[in-house]
User: Fold these one by one.
Assistant:
Number 1:
Amino acid sequence: MSEQPLLIAEGLGKNYGARLGCRDVSLEVYPGEVLAVVGESGSGKSTLLGLLSTELVPTAGRVSYRLRDGRMADLSTLSAAERRLLMRTDWGLIRQNPADGLRMAVSAGGNVGERLMAVGWRHYGQIRDEALDWLAKVEIAGDRIDDDPRAFSGGMRQRLQIARNLVTRPRLVFMDEPTGGLDVSVQARLLDLIRGLVSEMGLAVIIVTHDLAVARLLSHRLVVMRQGRVIETGLTDQVLDDPREPYTQLLVSSVLAA
Amino acid sequence: MSAQPISSMPRSSMPDITYNFAYLDEQTKRMIRRAILKAIAVPGYQVPFAAREMPMPYGWGTGGVQVTAAVLGPQDVLKVIDQGADDTTNAVAIRGFFEKTARVATTTATAEATVIQTRHRIPETALNENQILVYQVPIPEPLRFLEPRETETRQLHALAEYGLMHVKLYEDIARHGHIATTYAYPVEVAGRYVMDPSPIPKFDNPKMDDCPALQLFGAGREKRIYAIPPHTRVRSLDFEDHPFKVQHFAKPCALCAATGVYLDEVILDDKGGRMFVCSDTDYCNTRQAQGHVGELGVPAEDAA
C-alpha cells in the first residue's frame, strides 16, 4: 500500500431539506485498500456513497481524488466531461439492484463492451474477445454472451455488473450492498469472486453494507455510521472483535456468529 | 346539401382565401430561418424551433414543409418526392400545397429543381450547389431508443459521448453477424455530432458526404431542425473489422436496366412473381426515355 491516499473526503455533509443525510464525514482511501461503510438502514451509508461518487452534490465539505497523472483534484472543480470520463474509466459503480447498473435490453457482451466502446474501441473482434475474457473471469459461460441480462439469475446479473465495471481496469470501485437480495450460497461465491478480483487487480474499494460478515470478509478497514455521522473507524478485525462504541457493540452482538 | 361541383357553387358563399407566400407568416419564417442558420453553423446539431401546426397530420412531413416554406422564393422550382417517387400521395399533396400557397413552379426532374423536399430517399441524379435538399424527419434523436431520457441524450451530444451508438451496432453484429441496420443509419457529421439521417436507406448515406447541395432536416412533431452544409464530411459509423457497406442488388432495374441504384420490390402476382425497379421514378423514366430497356420493360417508342 502506498502512503499517498487515492481519495480524501473532508467534512462531508448532505442535507435533504430539513432532514439530515450525513454530517461531517472525513475519510481517506488508499490504493489497493478495501474500506467498508457499515451501519443500520437510514444511517447515511448510501448518501455517503453518493457524495463520494459525485452522484450527489454535498452541502458541506469536499472530496478530492488522485488522478492517474498523480495530481490531487477537488472533484467539484472538475468539468462535467472530466467527471464522466473518470466515472467510466477510472471508477466503477456496482449497484445493489443489477437492473439499475446494467442495460437490460442489451446482450451481456454489449454490456461489458459498452465502456470499451465509450473509450474509443472500434474493433468488433477485440471488443468481443475482451468481453469473453471478462465473462470467464466472473464465471459466466461464454455461450451466454449474446443473451441479455433478463435471462440471467440474480447472481449472474450481479457478476455481469462487476465485469461491466472492471473491464476498463478502474482504480477505485464503489459498491452499494453488492450481495443484497442474493441467497447465502450465491453470496458466498460472489464474495469469493470479488475478493479474488480485488487482490488480483489491486483495486481500491469503498463498499457499503449492513452485513458485518461481508465487511469482515472483504474489507481492511471499517467505518461505522449512525444517524449520519461516523462514530467509529479502525481496522476491520479490531472494530469487530473489540468494538469501542456502545452502538458498535450492539451492532456486533446482534449478528449471529459474525 | 346536394353534391354540387365546387366550381359551380355561388361565388358569394366561398370567400377568396389568400395565403401569405408559402402559407406561413413572415415572422414564423424568420424564426425558422434563424434556426436554419444556426443549424448550418453547427453541422449535425439539433436546433430547437417553435414548430407550428400545419394543415396536415404529424408524420406527413410537417417539419419538412415548414423548412421548405422558410427557404422557398418565388423563383424557385420545387420537386417533392416520397420514397423516391413523385406521384405518391405525400408527394402530390405537398406539391399541390405549395403550388396553391406559393404559386411556385414545380417539376419532377431532379436536375431542374432548386428545392427538393424528400421523404426516405436522396435522388439518384447527383445534386449541385444551386439546390437545397429538405428531409422530412420523424425522430431526430439517433440515441432515442438506446437512452430514453432527453436530458441525458443532450448531455451525450454535448460531451460527444457516442459509445452508446456503437453498442447498437455491436448488438446488430452479435445477433445477425453483420450490421443489420438498413435505414436511418447513424452518421457522424463534420467529425463532431452524430446524426440521424432520417429514414433514408443506408444506400443513400454516401451521397450525403461532400454533397455540393445544402441539406436541411426538419422534424415537426419533435420541433428540431438540423443541417449538413455543402461539402461537409459525413461518415457512417462502423467497426474496423465490420466496415460500413451499402445494399447490393443482384439484378438491374427491370424497367430501365439501371445498375448501382436503389431498387424497390414490386409483387406482380400471387405466384411469387416479382420485379425490382428503381425507387427513383424520375431517374427511371428519364432512362427509359433515353431508350434503356430492362428485362420486363417496354421500349419507349412501343409504349407511346
Note: Chain B touches chain A through 17 residues (CB under 8 Å).
Number 2:
Amino acid sequence: MSASFKNCVFLIFGISILCCIVSCDFSAKSTSLTAISKEKITIAVSNTPLSAPFFIAEKMGFFADNNLNVELVRFDGGVKCFNALINQQVDFATSSETVVMFNSFKRTDFSVIASFVESDNDVKLLSLTPEKYRQLNNIANTRIGIVKGSASEFFLDTLLIMYNKTHLPIDRVYLTSDQLIPALLNDRVDIISAWEPLGYMLSEHMSQAADIINSRGLYHLSFNLIGLKHTSVDEKHKLALLKAISDATVYTHKHPKHAQKIISQVLNITPSQIEYSWADYTFRLSLSNALFSNIQTQSQWAIDNQLVPVENRVDFRQVFDRKLLETFNNKEAGW
Amino acid sequence: MMLSKRLKWTAILCAMLTLIVGLSLIQVHNYQQQIYRQLNYSMKLQLSIDSLRSQLWLYQEYTDKQGLIELNNRQAELAAELSQDIDWDVQQKIIIQNLNRLNTNVRALINTQNSNHSTQVDDASTLIAERLFKAKYSMVIEEMTEEMFNLHQLSIKHAKSKQQTLLWLVGAVLLVLTALITAWSFMTLVRFRHGLYSLNQGMEALASGDLTSRIVFSDDDELSALASNFNSMKHSLTQITVKKDSLKQEVDRQTHKLIEQQDRLIFLAEHDELTGIYNRRAFIKKIDNAIARDLRSDDQAALLFIDLNKFKQINDTLGHSIGDEVIVTLAQRLMSNLRATDIVGRLGGDEFVVWLDLIAEPIDIDQKLTQLLNLIKQPINIGPHTLEVGASIGVSVLPKHGLSSRELISAADTAMYQAKADNSIEYCYYAGDHGISTLANS
C-alpha cells in the first residue's frame, strides 16, 4: 500500500465528484439551451426610469442569458411607444395603463402581456405656493394647468371626487406637458397636475416640496408590456422575455444602488432625479384585477368626460393576455 | 505511517463525520424552523389581509363610526404584523415593504373617504365617490393578495432551494467523508494484514532453522519496527551460533593436541629415548602379552639377550656420541630385519633383547640368530670411521626355559654370559631345566 495507491484513490474520488457536478450543471443548462434562437426582438421603451427593468436587462445581459436578441428602441413617452407598436415598427411596446385605456376604444389588435412597474405617487398637484392649498377647499377659483385627456386630468378629477370637491369652481387650463412648468413659473396657472419628472424639476426651483397635498396611494400609475395579438414572436420567446424582465426586477431588488446608477447613465439624468422618485416605484411582474379595475375606472372617467366615443363599449377582458403570465408564473413556481 | 497514528486519524475522521452529521441536522432543523416561521407568518398576514378586506366591504355597506373603528383596528393590526422582523431575504423584504405601502394606501383612502364623509353634497356625486373608493379599495386589496401570492411563492422557492442546497452539500460532504474513512480503514487493514503476514513468515522461517533470511519491510509503522527488531534478534542469534561453533572447534583442537601429547608421553614412557625401540618396561609388558597368547595357543617363542662386544672400546676411544650412533644404527638394523610379530627392546647400555614370536622349529631360531649376528657384524660408517662390533647372544625358549618374562629374561641373560665367557661361541641357549646347553658355535 504505497503513496501512489493513496493518490490514486483520492484522484478517483475527485474525478467522480467532478463528473457529478459537471453532469448536474450540464443537465441544468441543457434545458435553457433548447430555446436558442437569435431572431431580433424589438421593444419600444419610454425614456423614463419606469422602463428600468428593460434597461437593466440589456445592460446586465439578462436578455442574452435567456437567449434573446433584443433591441430596445427608445421613445419619449408611452404614446409614441404604443404608436410604434401599432405601426409594426417594433414587436413590443411599453406604456401606461392610460394609453392602453384610450387605445382600447380605437382597436382590439393588441394585448397587455404584463405590468412591470407601478407607482402610487407619480402624478401630483404642484404649486409654487403649496402652503396656500393645504385645505383643498382653497383650490376654488384657481387656475389649474392640466394635460387634456391624460393621467394629469384623470388624477385631478379623481382627487376632486374623492375629496368631494367636484362642486368647486375651477379654471382648467389645458396645456401640453412641456408647457406645464413654464406656465406655473410665468404665473399663467396657480397649480399644475403633473407627473414625474416634472415634480422633481419644479423642486429644483424651490426650497420646499411643491406638492400641495399628500396624494400618495390615491392614483396608481403602471407601466405595461404590450404586444400585438398577431405577432411573429412565438410563446417561447415571450416567456423568455418575461424571464429576462423578471431577472432584471430581481436584480433591481437586490442591487438598488447599482440599478439606479445604470438608469442614470442610460437616460443621462442625474442620480438625484432617479433617487427622487425611486422609492415610489414597485417593480414586479403582474397582471391582476387591480390593473383591470384601474383601467376600467379610467375608462369610466373617459366616458363621463366624453373623451372617448360613448357608443364604443370596451370589454377590457379582451385587452389582457393573462394566459402568458400565468404560464410564466407556473413555470417559475415549478408547477 | 504508524498504525496507532492511522487509527488516530480514523478516529478523527469519524469524529469529524459525527460532527458534520450533527451540525447538518442542527442546520436542517434551523432551516425548517425558519421556513415554518415564514410560512406561519405569511398565513397570519393572509388572514389579516382577508380580515381587512371583509372589514372594508362592511365599511362600504355601513359607513358609520363603528365600522370605521373596526377598520382602523384591522388596518393597525396588519401594520403591526407587517412591522415584525422575520428573517426575510432581500426579495421578501421588498414584498413586505410593498405590502406596507399598500396598507398605507388603504389608510390614505380611508382618511380621504372619512374626511369628506360629513360633507356630502348630493347623492349623485356621493354615489360616484363611493364607486371610486370601492374600486380603489378592491385594487389595493387585489394587489395585496397578489403580493401575498408572490410572498408564498418566493418563500416556497427559497425553502426548496435552501433545502436542496443543504441536501446536496451535506450529501456531498458525507459521501466524500464516508468514502475517505472507508478507503482509509481499508488501507489500514491491508497494511496491518500485510505486516502481520510478513512477521509470521519470518517467524516460521526462524522456527525451521533459517538464520540467514530477513523480513523485508518498506513502511515505518509498528509492525515494521517489530520486523526490524526481529531481524536484529535474528542477526544476534546468528552471531551467537557462530561463536559456539568456533568454541567447539577450539575445544576439538585442544583435545586433539592433548591426545597427541598423551600419545607422545606414552611413546616416551615405552620407548628408549636414544633408539626409539621399546625400553625394558615396555618390552616386558609386550612380551607378557605375547607369552599369555602363545601359552593359550601352545606356540613356541624365543627370547634373545644381545650384548655387544667391542662397544666399550669404541665408546672409550671415539666418544659417547659415536657410541650412541653405533647403538642407533644397530637398533635400526634389528628393527628392519624382524617380523611384524617380533619385538625388539633395549635394556640399557649395549644390551638389546629380541622376542621371536611363533617359532615353529628350533632351526628357525638358529637361522634367525645367524642372520642377526651377520647384521650386527656388518661395518658401520660414521664420519671418517668404519667401525665393527660383535655380539654375544643368550637364548631362552618358551615354554621350555620359563613361563614368564622374568624367567625367560633371566635365562637368556644367563645364557648370554655363558656365551660371552666362551670366546668360541657367539650365542648360547639356556641349558634345560635351568641348565645351560650349547646348541651351536661359530
Note: Residues 202 and 208 of chain B are 10 Å apart (CA to CA).
